[in-house]
From TrEMBL:
Organism, scientific name: Roseomonas elaeocarpi
InterPro entries found in the cross-reference section: Cro/C1-type_HTH, Lambda_DNA-bd_dom_sf
Name of the protein: Multiprotein-bridging factor 1 family protein
A matching Pfam family: HTH_3
Domain (HTH cro/C1-type): residue spans on this chain: 13-67
PROSITE patterns in UniProt: HTH_CROC1 (PS50943)
SMART domains according to UniProt: HTH_XRE
């Protein structure tokens, strides 16, 4: 089953959040957003403003989570970073 890019992006953000050990409310606090915004992003229900998405990605990055999007295939991935 192929999913659209908004759903794929949302699932990767949810995976990154779970890798960080956060619930949606905690991620929202870390990113300076409302929990409902995080929920909508993870469900892929709407396109997200670039600044909002950047806030989520930066919050996860501060927690050691790497979110990437392959520019060739468009696939998203979440992983951890150690350093």
């Amino acid at each position: 089953m192929q999913m659209n890019s908004l759903v794929a992006q949302g699932r990767v953000i949810a995976a990154g959040r779970m890798l960080a050990g956060l619930d949606q409310e905690q991620l929202a606090t870390e990113a300076g957003l409302s929990p409902s915004t995080v929920s909508r992003i993870e469900c892929g229900h709407r396109r997200v403003r670039p600044a909002t998405l950047e806030a989520v990605w930066r919050a996860l990055d501060r927690l050691g989570i790497d979110l990437t999007r392959n520019s060739r295939t468009g696939h998203y991935a979440a992983g951890t970073s150690f350093g």
